Batch of 2 targets.
Target 1
Amino acid sequence: MKKSIAIDMDNVIVDIETNWINWYEKEFGVRIPKEDLLGVPEDDAFPNPAAARSLIYKTGFFRHAPMIEGAAEAVRKLQENYDIFIVSAAMEFPNSLIEKHDWLNEHLPFISWKNIVFCGDKRVIDTDYLIDDHLKNLDFCKGMPILFTASHNINVTKHTRVNSWEEVLAMLTGELAN
Amino acid sequence: MKKSIAIDMDNVIVDIETNWINWYEKEFGVRIPKEDLLGVPEDDAFPNPAAARSLIYKTGFFRHAPMIEGAAEAVRKLQENYDIFIVSAAMEFPNSLIEKHDWLNEHLPFISWKNIVFCGDKRVIDTDYLIDDHLKNLDFCKGMPILFTASHNINVTKHTRVNSWEEVLAMLTGELAN
């Protein structure tokens, strides 16, 4: 039986940081450098955190976000040897449900609807691995937690860290060889 | 730590049978008696199964479905002693995502977004119990499967069966006493 991997969306396959910076500039005319996001919660990096947060609720925010480099190719490659589940805490932002669904259909059309999970608390998910950028998910997962680097988590010292999809592939292909 | 229960929506807390009969009558002018649904897949019970199936994709089909008798009160009661997760295979019908979310907010407002899961294959869900009407979910669940009676499953002889929310409460209150 194949081992299973749960893969988060935002900051793992979806480049929500760049998306947020782009939307903030478009809406409020100020472009912050990506470095400002380092080591802080994302909305706190913007001149007006409440305004930044309000963008999450706007129609289209999730639908047209760019992809993290190499994500689609890597997920497709992993699918050859693992059961892949895309697991997003989309329930916090109900407007994101259909947008995230449509995003996946466009960018990862090889992921069946059977392998998509939109939830809240990920503790209820049982897979052999979880690739995620948040400790609130990784700390409680039932399988092996893998921390995907995002600006906000650069100072985290827990869990095995991967900095790119290249590193995910190297690690999980290595796992198969063991 | 509280034990956890995953609860399906359609045919468990949502009376999708009555809803389907009502919509078929409204759209096609023919009202089938509920008895016609006994022991057959739901769409097969209608004079035109393809037409019946097409209703699932219509806007509003899931949003205004009635509730199964006693569901809200029973779920609220169970919440006192169990971690409750509403787990629906909503991903098969993307139009249902926001409608099911809004339905839950209206009828079960005491369920946090953290405890709602919209998925495809429920095998990835790990709870102590699963209350569901379909073998495709119950046969592979990690916890104890509980078959909630629906017209289509009356001939199923596997798993512990409950016929109503009253029976669910009696059973799971009994479990706590053990």
Note: The interface with chain B takes residues 4, 6, 85, 87, 91-92, 94, 97-98, 101-102, 112-121, 124-127, 142 of chain A (CB under 8 Å).
Target 2
Amino acid sequence: MILVVSLNPALDVTHHVAGVDWSGVNRPQQVGTAPGGKGLNVARTLHALGAAVQVVGLAGGVTGEAVAAGLAAAGVAGAFAPIAGQTRRTFAVVDTNSHDTALFNEPGPAVTAGEYHEFLVLYENSLAGCDAVVLSGSLPPGLPEESYAGLAARAAAAAVPVVLDAGGAALRRGVAAGPAIAKPNLAELQGAVRRPLVGLAAVAAAAAELRAAGAHAVVVSLGGEGLLAVTGEGTWHAAPPAQVAGNPTGAGDAVVAGLAHGLVLGTPWADRLRHAAALGTACVAAPAAGQFAEADYQRALAGIQVTEWAGR
Amino acid sequence: MILVVSLNPALDVTHHVAGVDWSGVNRPQQVGTAPGGKGLNVARTLHALGAAVQVVGLAGGVTGEAVAAGLAAAGVAGAFAPIAGQTRRTFAVVDTNSHDTALFNEPGPAVTAGEYHEFLVLYENSLAGCDAVVLSGSLPPGLPEESYAGLAARAAAAAVPVVLDAGGAALRRGVAAGPAIAKPNLAELQGAVRRPLVGLAAVAAAAAELRAAGAHAVVVSLGGEGLLAVTGEGTWHAAPPAQVAGNPTGAGDAVVAGLAHGLVLGTPWADRLRHAAALGTACVAAPAAGQFAEADYQRALAGIQVTEWAGR
């Protein structure tokens, strides 16, 4: 079973409007509501892959209830420690004429030390018997930046491997706790090594620094340039076939799901990377984060070029 | 006690953003959530005036829970018949740089005949001992356009006077049920008589037609031109002192609250109209619908010119 941590989930609300009047009254012809946030996207993709998955997190207010209910309706097991604050919303306005999307991300609710302690009890109880833990997404206000490092250390004590998808201080500190895989994107990797990275060789060198700092493997997501994995067994580059039109939101989450899935199955790195890259590509073509069509996945899988990289 | 009917309430979500990126990611610096919809605005204004008020309506889903909780937190008594659908949201994006506001009004949830029957039981039970009923706002999908006429007839049977604020067929049919006061705006009045109305004399003539069709009094809200009341005791025009800068959303609801308040107090028409117009003006100056500052109300009250109209 893969345990997915979601400390700052969201209720994603999407309005589809044909020709938005940005200074007037609009009547959306389609309204969507779904549980969101990076962790929940990862969990839904894992569930769609047939993996046993459980979410643990923090949720509060009627938006928190909606997130928990939506996750249950999607067939994903979840347990949330209650918080007094209200789980955040994200609001997307999709103009179906211009194809522009405006996103409004509310700040997360403040979490108290007592509430986080309740979560930790839930997390510790869920760790036993897990095959992997995914730590993904932003920390809500009130939680210290070493929170992911603490969760990774508890997983290590329980001999459960960790996949870490975070940026900033949470990435730097989390890497020191020895995750099996860290998955920064290019901007997050640049932030971690505090310098611009131009070209695959520079990316590989920076990823190797995160390995030296504690991560067993580092997979860097590079958008249209695919994935670069720097591991103890070698360095691989997975290049997608061509630019895919669609919504890149959540593509990184699909990659994380693929990496965690490959990790628990023990898939060799070249195949694990191909699987993760194909999920990311298929996710871009899907209408909503956390979803993909099997045909898109199969097409991407066939088109992705994985090369063991000479520069390791 | 004034009973306010809210068949299609809303959860109003407002994001304040400095310089909106309409095709990118925004992080609102201020997020507001409040119970909304015309009926609830009327109820909050009545509550602020010190009137005893109770809301009855229909609500469902977590948004419905949020509406009920927000109303209770505002100190307004409310009872909602449950519906399987989800109470709608309205979403406002206020650009604090340009002062543009974009509004996104979700469609209301479909209401079944059985759910409406539950509401009718609640309504009938609440009617006993009421001093007035306010019927205000749009009907949710699934309810027939004669719904307000039916509610007005039940109020008449219980000898409770009705204030009706509706447009379209709900106004035409509701007027026939003999409300004490109908409060259309200019567009709604034009729709009811099916012709354009230019000038106060034309408005007064059309209002007299609604009286002939059954309404005891008709008060037309004319935006910056104030209110025109055509009643059995005479015709009055209330002219606001000058254009007030601010948010006109909910100004009509404040006028309805003032009219209902004056109705139950038995205030003479000239004073009743001045009170209602001052509340509408003060509401424009307030940051949110259903609110007003007493100083704004007092200033408006002093500045409004009420004239008995020769053209009656």
Note: The mean pLDDT of chain B is 93.
